[in-house]
Amino acid sequence: MTDETVDVLIIGSGHSGGMAAKCLTEKGISCLMLNAGPVADARRDTEPKPAYALPFRGFKQPGRLEHVFQSNEFNANTWVDEQEVPYTCDPQQPYNWVRVRLFGGRSLFWSRQSFRLSDYELKGKSHDGFGDDWPISLSDLAPYYSRVEAIFRVRGHADGLPQYPDGNFVPDNSSWTGCMQRFVDAGKKMGVPVCKPRSSEGVDGLASSVNLLLPDAFATGKLRAIPNVVVRELRVDPKTGLVSEAHFVDRLSRREMSVKARVVVLAAGTLESTRLLLNSKIGNSSGVMGHYLIDQVYGPGIVCSVPEARDGRATPELMGGAALIPRFRNLDTKAKNFIRGYALNVFSSAHPMDPRNFAAYGAELQKKLDSYSGSGFSTGIMGEVLAHYEHQVSIDKNVVDAWNIPVLHIDTKYTDNEFNMARDAVDTSIELAEAAGFEVLSKNYDPNPPGYSIHELGTCRMGDDPKTSVLNKWNQSHDIKNLVVVDGSCFVSGGWQNPTMTILSLAMRASEHLAEQMRQGNV
Amino acid sequence: MAASVSAKTMLGQQTVTPPPPQAAPPVAPSAPPPVATAPGPVPWMRGLREVKPLPITPLVPDAVAQTSAHFFTDRQLATLRQLSEIMLPPLKGYPGAIDAGAPEFLDFLIGVSPVDRQQMYQSGLDRLDAEARQRFGMPFAGIQASQADELLRPWLRTWMTDHPPAEPFAHFVNLVHSDIRTATINSEAWSKAETAMGREEPDVGLYWFPVDPDIHREEPGREASAPVRHPAPKKQHA
Ligand SMILES: Cc1cc2nc3c(=O)[nH]c(=O)nc-3n(C[C@H](O)[C@H](O)[C@H](O)COP(=O)(O)OP(=O)(O)OC[C@H]3O[C@@H](n4cnc5c(N)ncnc54)[C@H](O)[C@@H]3O)c2cc1C
Hints:
The complex is a heterodimer. Chain A has helices at residues 15-26, 42-45, 119-122, 124-128, 138-152, 178-190, 209-219, 270-280, 362-372, 416-435, 500-519; strands spanning 5-11, 31-34, 46-50, 154-156, 170-171, 199-200, 223-226, 229-237, 242-250, 256-266, 296-297, 301-305, 322-325, 342-349, 376-384, 392-400, 406-411, 439-444, 483-485. Chain A is α/β, with parallel strands linked by helices. In chain A, strand 8 (229-237) and strand 9 form a beta hairpin. Chain A starts with a strand and ends with a helix. In chain A, 54% of the residues are buried. Chain B is mainly alpha-helical. Chain B has a domain at 78-194. Chain B is built from 8 helices and 2 strands; from the N terminus they run ααααααααββ. Chain B has helices spanning 2-11, 44-50, 74-87, 102-111, 115-136, 145-152, 168-185, 188-196; strands at residues 204-208, 236-237. In chain B, helix 4 (102-111) crosses helix 7 (168-185). The longest helix of chain B has 22 residues, at 115-136. In chain B, 24% of the residues are buried. Chains A and B meet through strand 3, helix 9, strand 16 and strand 18 of A and helix 7, helix 8, strand 1 and strand 2 of B. Strand 16 (392-400) of chain A pairs parallel with strand 2 of chain B, so a sheet runs across the interface. The structure holds flavin-adenine dinucleotide. Flavin-adenine dinucleotide binds next to helix 1, strand 8, helix 8 and helix 11 of chain A.
């Protein structure tokens, strides 16, 4: 029987775990990575198939993954099964928890939109009085953002807007298509900045832990990894007060095992990290753990048609392309019924239109589809969700997952601030589109259920005061100094920005700080 | 016999002498029982690994067979067939919903769906039929397209993904339309028509097999959908 004590145990292999592994091993520290799911191999595990050859003809298998709106019959096997790893919520307050446990986590499938937070988010309370400031500002994070952007090859255009901080970009100097230019011009008249989107190019379109982070870590010879093991509990040595052991279960055989470690880096993805800590009953002297769950509002938006592109007249010069409208509300002026702000994703499509945009059927619908094909233009909100103490997760004592691990109960909902913001986003989209001369075909004011954005954040917030926060500004537990949580659970506020660049930068910053602390013998 | 001897020799196995019959309770044999042997001179796995792929393009049953509909009542199915005919007739060389077996496929799909979806369909189809009888003195299955249009048009809406109309009957009319289209466009018949017209198959996607599936896993969908608070005080795997 082995009696090894590993230097650093990393739980999770996604963006955050991968970044921790890369930074720590490159500083010469040995790491062991545990991951709940198997290693996927797209050559072995996938096959191109027509929808008609699938059991449900391309419809979602009924009753499966009902809360994963992103799932379909082709990709159903890549998501965490809701029956295997359930969670509970009040049926009147549904939550969409969208999870991947394959090695590499959600970094295998993310859409790669890549933004920095600004001080409007990091210092939100100082700006408008609501909530709490982060213990760090953009100037603390900027050097890490720059390095992360280089690794992920973020393509973008420098716009010089304080709410849309520029970065270390692969320059995007492409020109606008005709329809986008019209939207940009309409925005100018209304004081709404329409900018180029920013996204990670990665390599061959993949910007994942498995191709951009973990290969470097393995190349050091300092990383070992075990797939298919589900960590159920962390144990603290009562003599030292330090975390010393992780208990896990083999996913396939259900054999129970444990491993000793000097340091634990938790990177299981926001809510799984919090679930593990709550189940372990550690690190929560503040009582704040599980609270302040946030994400972003998605769903509201509009679909339009560009009249000049109809009836076969769509050209690549006129149609196609994407834009991003960064937050513009509540910067220097005040919106009447909400605080903070939202961004809008803007797309133009040269593809056929979705039939849902026409209240017609049969031959009449087909005529519309033929005429409108290639003329599509749409907007969609990404809105800030306010952090409230009452929006929380806790352990549901009555339900366990397939490995007998108690599951999370998620208790959150959107409030008037989010609903009012959503309404403003749709009305503003309509105004812009009509000013650009587009025909608005359909609109939606209703947010998708919380969680849908796949940007769940908070529940182990960072802060300077151990009484009101779980982690310090280095992502280190206030209570247990050899426990570091490097995923999105540390967020104090989320802004409108897709969070992964920030998660990666914080994970890099926390891991390098940890390495230095270990070198000095403080941890 | 020769086969099993040679296979055993190959595997370095020893023959276990059967114990003499006696009255004592049976005890575990001292050595594990011999490994099951191949029916030929070499382990059959080798042959299997060398089989050349058959020239077989797997046939989907829809190419030759009909779905046996048994969830909806006869009346409901007749209504659904008429609705399918009206909402997606054959157009421009493409099969219509009836040619694609859409109503029968939906009978299967809805039959294995959660109860709320089943009820939405059943009550929607019943209401269409009742309205046709009241207004035109005929079942929905027997009315003219123009008469059906009078019943359907007031309920047609535009809507965005994941946000169908909330009002129950509008919800039904717009979702059944969308489902009829999906069942048709994702059919083999539609795919063949596309190919015949020289278009690329529109519905080929990258299918993910289960990756190293959990050996204990039960079939999903066997229970009402997950996550709602479990009333049972006992611990259980939901
Ligand atoms: C379809 C999609 C599109 C997205 N688009 C964007 C986007 O455009 N921009 C953006 O910024 N973000 C986007 N995201 C979100 C982004 O993917 C996540 O923010 C990011 O990948 C989170 O990384 P993570 O390492 O914190 O967590 P995860 O990727 O969830 O990784 C956690 C890992 O921990 C493991 N784990 C969990 N529990 C345990 C346990 N108990 N024991 C052992 N291992 C465990 C899991 O197996 C998993 O591999 C998207 C996500 C998806 C799915």
